[in-house]
């Protein structure tokens, strides 16, 4: 019997991973989680991550 790991698409690198966390109901892989944690809030790439998270958290109201 094999334990099936749940696969999810990481919202930042958009790769299928099994290890990671759920953030705002979206999956964030371990690698990106580490990057996010180790990235300074003043770093431009941090703002980029946050923007991605916000985009997912607040979908557009108009279609
Ligand atoms: Zn990732």
TrEMBL record:
Pfam family name, one: Gin
InterPro entries per UniProt: Sigma-G_inhibitor_Gin
Record-given protein name: Anti-sigma-G factor Gin
Protein's organism: Bacillus safensis
Phylogenetic placement of the source organism: Bacteria, Bacillati, Bacillota, Bacilli, Bacillales
């Amino acid at each position: 019997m094999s334990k099936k790991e749940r696969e999810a698409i990481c919202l930042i690198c958009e790769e299928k991973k099994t290890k990671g966390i759920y953030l705002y109901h979206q999956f964030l892989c371990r690698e990106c989680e580490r990057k996010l944690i180790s990235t300074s809030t003043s770093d431009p790439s941090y703002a980029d991550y946050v923007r991605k998270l916000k985009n997912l958290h607040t979908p557009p109201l108009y279609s």
